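FAQ: What does the model actually see?

It sees only this:
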Amino acid sequence: MIESRLLQACINDLVSVLALPAMWTGQDPAQVVGTLLDAVVGMLGLDFACAWLKLEASAPYLLTVRLGESRGSGGVERQVARTFDRWVADEPSRWPSTVPNPFGGGDVAIMALRLGLADDLGVMVAASARSGFPRDTERLLLSVAANEAVVGVHEARLLGEQKRIAKELDARVAERTKELAAANEELRRITDAVPQAIIVLAPDGRVVYVNAFVLAYAGLSVVAGNAEAARERIFHPDDRERVLNEREAGLSRGEPFESELRARRKDGQYRWFLMRYQPLRSESGEILRWYATATDIEDRRRAEERVRNENLALRDEIDRSSMFEEIVGSSEGLRRVLAKVAKVAPTDSTVLIVGETGTGKELVARAIHKRSSRASRAFIRVNCAAIPPSLVASELFGHEKGAFTGALQRRVGRFEAADGGTIFLDEIGDLQPETQVALLRVLQEREFERIGSNRPVSVDVRVLAATYRDLGAAVKAGTFREDLFYRLNVFPVEIPPLRERREDILLLVRYMIDRYAKKAGKTIKSIDEDTLEMFRAYAWPGNVRELQNVVERAVILSDRDTFFVDESWFKREASHGPGPAASLTGALAASEKELIEGALASCKGRVSGPGGAAAKLGIPRQTLDSKIRALHIDKYKFRTS
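And it is asked to produce this:
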C-alpha cells in the first residue's frame, strides 16, 4: 500500500515536472534551470539542489542553487562551490554518493546528472540527508527533470538566439530605412531643386510622384498633383485626347517616346512642353517605373512660329516682287488669267490650262498650287509627251514587281507620290487612249490600280492639266475621249500668246535682263531702242520661252552696259517690216505652210514619233507644233484622208 502511494505521488510529481515548460516560456536558460530546481526541491523535500550551466563553449560555468524551506539563502553559491568544484568537470558516474553537508554537520546523499549528451550543458545535483535517498522513483523523477531542463535550456537558447537575430535584423532594417529615408529625402530635395517637371509613373501609367516644379507651376497640392484627374485641369483641351492616345501607345510599346503638349499654369496661361518618357527595367526586362520629364519649349515654339510667319511674309514679298510667281506682265489678257487663277486656286477643282508652247502654262499651274490649301504638299509635274507611250501608265500609276519585263521591283507612280498634293499633267493631249481611260477613273473615283495588281489604291490628288492642242477638235476627230475632256475642262484657263500682249514685252525684257545679268555678273543699265522695237515687231512663235532664250543669249554676248540684239536674229522670222521684207516673209510663210501640209498628209496627220511629220522634216516636235499654229494649219484633217 505504501509503495502504491509512493508510485502515485511520483506520477503526480512527473506530471508536475512535465508541465513546467508552460511556466518558463520566454525565460532565459538560468531562469529555466532555477524554476526546475525549485520544483524538484519542493517535490522531493530535498535539502538543496544545484546546477552548473555552460551557456557558451568558452564561458565559465554558471552556478544556480535552490535550498529547502528550512535553509537560509546567504552565500550559498560559495558554500556549494567549495564542496563540489573538484568534481564539476568529471562525469557524474565519478561523483561520490555522499558529501559533507555544505550547510551543516554530517553528510548528505547526492545524485548527479549530466545535462545534455552531444551538447554538454553542465551538471545538475540533488542532495538530501534523508536515509535511502535517492529511491528508484526519485531517480526516475530526477532523470525526467534533467531531460526537461535540457529541453528548456535548448528552447531558451534558441528563443534567445531568435530574439538576438530579430533584434539585429530590426536594428539593420531601422538603419537601412533611415539611410533610404535620408537618400529619398536627398533625392526629393534634388528633384525639387530642378527647374523642370519630373514625374514618376507606375508601369500602368499611374502617377506616383511629381516634383515641386509641377506643383508650383500648376498651383496644386501634393494630393491633387498625384491624382489622375489633375490632367483634366492641366492639359489644354485641344491637346488632351491626342496626348493621352500618344501616351497610351508609347506605354504599350515599352520604348522611350516623346510628346508635345500645352500645360496650364496656375495663372491660367498655357505654355508648350516637350514630354520625354523613359522606362526603368528590372534585370529580367520587366518595366518597374516610367520616368517622365517636361521641358518648357514655349520660346522655341514661338520662335518657330515667328520664323514661319516671317517665311510666309517673305514668300508673299517674293510673290509680289516676282509679279505673281514670275508671271510678268500687266496687259489686259494676262490680268484676266491671273484673276481666274486667284479664284480657282483655293478650291480643289480640276483646271485645264490651254496655251501655245512657251506661254507659261507650268508657271500658272505652280501659281495655282502655291495658293491652294495643298501648298505645303508635293507638286508633281509629268510631261505626258516626253514619256514613251508604252511607259506612260507605269509612270503615272506605278507597277508591281514582275508586272512586265524589266519590272524588277515595285515602283510608286506619280499619282501616288502626289497624294495630298497636286499633279500637273503637261501635254495632256498626247495621252494614248488606254491611258485616258485610267486617268478618267482617277478623276471620277479617286483611285487606280498599279500595273500588275488588282488592288485599288486610293489617292487625294488635285489634277491640273495643260495642252497646246485644241482638245475640242481632238474629241471630234476621235483622238481624245469626250468624257475625259469634260472632266478636265471643269475650269479652263486660256493663256494668250505673247503677240497678243505686246505691252508686256518691255516688262518681260527688263525682268529677264536683271535676272541673267546678275547670274552673269554683268551690269546692264539701258535697252537699245532699235532692239526694243525689233522685240515689239517680232511675232514670237515660241512666246515667252523664246523671248527668254533670246535675252539670255544677248546678255551672255553683251560686253557693254546697253542691252543690244543683232537684227540678223530676226530677219528670217520678222512679223512685219518694210514692203519688200514683208513680201518675202509672206512668200516664205506660204512655202513653209505647203511643205508642212505635205509632210502631214504623208504621215496621215501624225506629228510626233518616228513616223511623224516632225521627224520627216527634221525639226523638233515643239517647233513644228508652233509653226502649225502660227500658219493656222488644221492637222486633224489629214488624219481622215
